[in-house]
């Protein structure tokens, strides 16, 4: 007699995430089971309730902060403005995937009133802020940035990236296009650089008094 096919939890979670994003929390476990190609009984063998399945689906793989992987290796190397633009573009792609999950999680929170992911120690937003602040602090120590508050700089940078994605979502309903991404990234880096870029020494010859 052939052994039954084993299905991974990740497959069920991926199917649930796709269905919940399409239908919201009103989606049924029957719809999730159909998408995953399993019976509802299989779902409830792994997840006791629909709410537990939803929380698992809303705990995305994106919590690994892929857009900030390897950020330490950038310190002191290459053009800092190019690095900032690249990090901004990667962050926008990250938040394009994450933002709908965040919004749905806030609409269906855990008993604490917060998305379940944010109730755990060292949640992803704090980890991202620390990574960015540490990166900017290292560049400040190398005098590649002015001695500004690195956490403030990180908050401005990450907040701007998140806000761009949020406005992409809210303007879709009005059929309006947000600021084009290349324009936004150039402008963001330019504004930050004007406020935090290194102060260059004036090496021009001094003029003698008349």
Task: Please describe what this structure looks like.
This protein is mainly α and 210 residues long. The protein has two domains: 9-57, Arc Repressor Mutant, subunit A (Orthogonal Bundle), CATH 1.10.10.60; 61-196, Tetracycline Repressor, domain 2 (Orthogonal Bundle). The chain has eight helices and no strands. The chain has helices spanning 9-23, 29-36, 40-46, 50-57, 80-107, 124-141, 150-172, 181-196. Helix 5 packs across helix 8 and helix 7 (150-172) packs antiparallel against helix 8 (181-196). The longest helix is centred in the middle third of the chain and has 28 residues, at 80-107. It is elongated, with a radius of gyration of 23 Å. The chain starts with 8 loop residues before the first helix and ends in a 14-residue tail after the last helix.
Please specify the SSE layout and strand pairing.
Blueprint: H1 9-23, H2 29-36, H3 40-46, H4 50-57, H5 80-107, H6 124-141, H7 150-172, H8 181-196
Helix pairs in contact: 1-2, 1-4, 5-7, 5-8, 6-7, 7-8
Characteristic key phrases:
mainly alpha; Arc Repressor Mutant, subunit A; Tetracycline Repressor, domain 2; 2 domains; disordered C terminus
CATH domain class name of the largest domain: Mainly Alpha
Using the 3D structure, state the CATH architecture of the largest domain.
Orthogonal Bundle
Number of strands: 0
Main beta-sheet strand count, sense and barrel state: none
CATH topology assignment of the largest domain:
Tetracycline Repressor, domain 2
The first-to-last residue Cα distance is: 103 Å
């Amino acid at each position: 007699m052939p052994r039954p096919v084993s299905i991974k939890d990740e497959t069920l979670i991926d199917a649930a995430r796709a269905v919940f994003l399409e239908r919201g929390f009103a989606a049924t476990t029957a719809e999730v089971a159909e998408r995953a190609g399993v019976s509802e009984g299989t779902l409830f063998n792994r997840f006791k309730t629909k709410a537990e399945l939803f929380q698992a689906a809303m705990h995305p793989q994106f919590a690994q902060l892929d857009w900030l992987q390897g950020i330490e290796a950038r310190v002191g190397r290459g053009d800092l403005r190019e690095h900032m633009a690249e990090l901004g573009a990667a962050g926008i792609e990250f938040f394009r995937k994450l933002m709908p999950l965040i919004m749905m999680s806030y609409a269906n929170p855990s008993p604490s009133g917060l998305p379940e992911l944010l109730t755990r120690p060292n949640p992803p937003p704090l980890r991202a802020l620390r990574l960015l602040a540490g990166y900017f602090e290292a560049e400040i120590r190398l005098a590649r940035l002015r001695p500004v508050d690195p956490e403030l700089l990180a908050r401005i940078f990450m907040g701007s990236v998140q806000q761009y994605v949020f406005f992409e979502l809210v303007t879709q309903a009005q059929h309006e296009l947000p600021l084009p991404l290349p324009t936004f990234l150039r402008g963001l880096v330019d504004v930050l650089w004007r406020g935090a870029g290194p102060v260059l020494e004036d090496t021009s010859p001094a003029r003698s008094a008349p």
